[in-house]
Amino acid sequence: MDPETGERRDTDADAGSESAAAGAGATAAAPGPGGTVSDAELAAAKAEAAERLDDLRRLQAEYVNYRRRVDRDREANREAAKAEVLAELLGVLDDIGRAREHGDLTGAFRSVGEALESVTAKAGLVRFGEPGDAFDPMIHEALMHGYADDVEVPTCTQILQPGYRIGERVIRPARVAVAEPTEALPEPSADSSADSSAGDDSAENKDDQS
Predict the structure, then answer these.
(1) Domain-by-domain residue ranges, the chain?
(2) Which pLDDT tens digit goes with each residue over 104-136?
(3) What is the CATH topology of the domain spanning 125-188?
(4) CB 3.0 to 4.6 Å from 141: which of 36, 99, 135, 173, for a disulfide?
(5) Three-state secondary structure readout of the chain
C-alpha cells in the first residue's frame, strides 16, 4: 500500500526497477572480461617475453656451436687415426718405389704394389717431392747441401726419400739434397787471405833456404 494515497503498489514493476538499478551498478563496478591491464604491466610483459626470446636464441646458438665443435673434433680424430695407420705403411711404399726404380716391380709383386698405392691414394695419402722443387723447410728436410750456377733460389736437386701428407697434415717430410745459388757462397775474409799469403811466403822462404 502507498502510505500517501492508500493505493496498492505494483510490486512487480518496483522489483524490476530495483533489480535493473542494482545490475547497472554492478556492471559499472566490475572490470571487463579478464580485468583491465595497465600500460606498465603490458610493457613489463613485453620486456619479459623479449628476454625469454633472447635466452632461447642464445641457447640455440650455443647448441649449434657445440654441434660444430663436436663434428670438428670427430673429424680431427678420424684424420689422426687414418694418418697413424698410413704412417705404418710408408716403409712398404718406399720399398715399392725402390723396386720400381730398379726395374724389379714385376709380376705379382707389381700387382700388389700398385694395389697398395691405389688404396693409400684413395685414403688421401699424397706423395710429394720432385727434383727442381723450391726448398721449403716446412715440408723438406735437407740431408745434403751444395751450390749450383743453374739455380736462383734454394732448390731440391735430389729426392733421397719422398714425403707424404694427408690434406694439410705432413706425415713425413721429403728428405732432399739442396743446392743454393753460387752467388750465396761466402766470400773469403781478409784474415783468411792474409793467412794464405803468409803461408805462401813461409813456404817460399823454406824453399830458398833449402
Answers:
(1) 125-188
(2) 989 888 999 999 999 999 999 999 999 999 999
(3) Nucleotide Exchange Factor Grpe; Chain A, domain 2 (2.30.22)
(4) 173
(5) CCCCCCCCCCHHHHHHHHHHHHHHHHHHHCCCCCCCCCHHHHHHHHHHHHHHHHHHHHHHHHHHHHHHHHHHHHHHHHHHHHHHHHHCCHHHHHHHHHHHHCCCCCHHHHHHHHHHHHHHHHCCEEEECCCCCECCCCCEEEEEEEEECCCCCCEEEEEEECEEEECCEEEECEEEEEEEEHHHCCCCCHHHHHHHHHHHHHHHHHHHHC
